[in-house]
Write a structure and sequence with these properties.
With about 350 residues, the chain is α/β, with parallel strands linked by helices. It has twelve helices and eleven strands. The protein has two domains: about 160 residues, Rossmann fold (3-Layer(aba) Sandwich), CATH 3.40.50.1970; about 180 residues, Up-down Bundle (Dehydroquinate synthase-like, alpha domain), CATH 1.20.1090.10. It starts with a strand and ends with a helix. The structure holds nicotinamide-adenine-dinucleotide (NAD), the ligand O=C(O)C(=O)C[C@@H](O)[C@H](O)[C@H](O)COP(=O)(O)O and zinc ion.
């Protein structure tokens, strides 16, 4: 059975359809010319399915991986669309993980000053987070997602059957974003991930993923509808990211986004315990859950305190040079804090070092 969640954004409202077989709805993408965008790995695994089942007037495949989430790739996507004579009525179709979704959405936002797009996520991370909410963009050497646009998709088709080909490491990255959502909004969601973690990673019981995807999308849809452009509550979705993005950048994007978020949550959890915002017991509970899912809990040595602080200063939440952090109050609640001294942040980072 398909579940449907509305993202309530007035005349830009859209539906998220979730369920095994949801990808078959791509056959209904008719009436406009579709431009399929995907990466090399997804093309290898799912390209023949897409060629048969998604009506398309052209496609573009770029090399898989975060290192290709660049302005250059977005320009290549737009140039291919122009070469194929797509006009403003084009519908860009993002088939892939968060990298494909973020770049296809950004290309759609700027192609002829705005075309439509649909998200068909194929990683767990994209199903529970990146395909919803309209944050699109690319990385530059100065920082993660520093160039981009808010551009909402027209529809999101989430088919958990894509997970069958996803390696365990990528499943873990998606679990990190679900855990994040649990820490900031929903203790029950967090507790569900504490239960039998091996059945989510080592020997995946795929039936467990559907309710996790549904709950994550439901919460994200509510937040996005309330605060599309991150003027308030949406910033909480950035929990673990101020630290995590810095780790990704300092690691030359060799670690997964979800891994960065996992270690970033450990940094935020340690800092919150030192500041007395939550208890040491809660920080330890979060760390245990992250470790049990096989995600990293220690900051790599090359992420020195000065390098981390420098990278964190480029975060988009910052104002007037002060680092803004999302810090937990308990499992299920968090807040934005703009008043933490660099020395406090540095001490917490030292404590999380490997
Ligand atoms: N826009 C947002 O709100 C938002 C939210 C979270 C993350 N993100 C972004 O998403 C990106 C991370 O996304 P990701 O973790 O999906 O990474 P990804 O898109 O790089 O995918 C990870 C790997 O899995 C492969 N893959 C994809 N689907 C597969 C499948 N079904 N079977 C086998 N392999 C498959 C990809 O080719 C890639 O090699 C980051 O750039 C992050 O910044 C954006
Ligand atoms: O949708 C949001 O808002 C998020 O912050 C979700 C994050 O998981 C995601 O990684 C997002 O791309 C980070 O946004 P950024 O504004 O820090 O680039
Ligand atoms: Zn994220």
């Amino acid at each position: 059975m398909m579940e449907r969640i509305q993202v309530g954004l007035g005349d830009r409202a859209y539906e998220i359809v979730i369920g095994p077989g949801a990808r078959a709805l791509a056959a209904d993408l008719t009436g406009r010319r579709n431009f399929l965008v995907t990466d090399s790995r997804v093309a290898e695994l799912w390209g023949s399915w897409a060629a048969k089942e998604i009506p398309q007037a052209g496609s573009f495949v770029f090399p898989a991986g975060e290192r290709h989430k660049t302005p250059e790739t977005v320009v290549s996507i737009c140039r291919r669309a122009a070469e194929l004579r797509f006009d403003r009525k084009a519908r860009f179709v993002a088939l892939g993980g968060g990298v494909v979704g973020d770049m296809t959405g950004f290309a759609a936002a700027i192609y002829m000053r705005g075309a439509g797009f649909v998200q068909i996520p194929t990683t767990l991370l994209a199903m529970v987070d990146s395909s919803v909410g309209g944050k699109t963009g690319v990385d530059i050497p100065e920082g993660k997602n520093l160039i981009g646009a808010f551009h909402q998709p027209e529809q999101v088709l989430i088919d958990p059957d894509f997970l069958a080909t996803l390696p365990p490491g990528e499943l873990r990255c998606g679990l990190a974003e679900i855990l994040k959502t649990g820490v900031i909004f929903d203790e029950a969601l967090f507790a569900e991930l504490e239960r039998d973690p091996d059945s989510l990673t080592v020997a995946p019981d795929y039936a467990r993923f559907v309710p996790l995807i549904r709950r994550s999308c439901e919460l994200k849809a509510q937040v996005v509808a309330a605060d599309e452009r991150e003027a308030g509550i949406r910033a909480l979705l950035n929990y673990g990211h101020t630290f995590g993005h810095a780790v990704e950048l300092l690691s030359d994007f060799s670690i997964g986004h979800g891994e960065g978020v996992a270690v970033g949550m450990c940094c935020a959890g340690e800092l919150a315990a030192r500041l007395g915002l939550w208890t040491r017991k809660e920080a330890e509970r979060q760390k245990r859950a992250i470790a049990a899912l096989g995600l990293p809990v220690a900051l790599p040595r090359h992420c020195t305190v000065p390098a981390m602080l420098e990278a964190m200063r480029r975060d988009k939440k910052n104002r007037d040079g002060a680092i803004a952090l999302v810090l937990p109050r308990r499992i299920g609640a968090a807040e934005v804090n703009r008043d933490v001294a660099d020395a406090e942040i540095g001490a917490a980072l030292e404590a999380v070092h490997a």
